[in-house]
Amino acid sequence: MRWMWIDRVIELVPRQKMVAVKNVSLAEEHLHDHFAADTQRGLIALPVMPASLILEGMAQTAGILVGHAEGFREKVILAKISRAELTADAAPGTTLRYTAEIERMDAVGASTRGAIDLLDHARPDAGFRPIGTIDLMFSHLDQNMAGAQFPEHNFVFGEGFKTLLRTSGIAVPD
What we know:
The chain contains 3 helices and 6 strands.
């Protein structure tokens, strides 16, 4: 299973805002178990993206925004989920749009405000509709764990994230 929960960055305003999208596809293995058919109880399959993975998509979007602000020199980790509300499921054939904005940022971390919108490709004329908000706090790991030993390389922003940014047209440091 892959651990990237966004497919493309579609907008980046440094130190302010980032918008990313995730296309939900029946080809994703986790959808077959969430929720699988139960023929003994007469239940058909209801494949939906787990809320925890939707939350992770927002964390990746906001985390990249926070990391980008300092040229990915900091190891940015999720420190706290301040608020998470989802009002609808994301099923195969839909697209999630994550919008993350920085509320506050300093040497030790950042707080972000996030909005999630859903596009149902079966009804594209309806456009994106809001389905949730997720507010997060991030820590700059090296600034907050005095005395702890971490690898010198930035293990948070590895090749997967660099590839995502490059294919979205965003320059990343080597």
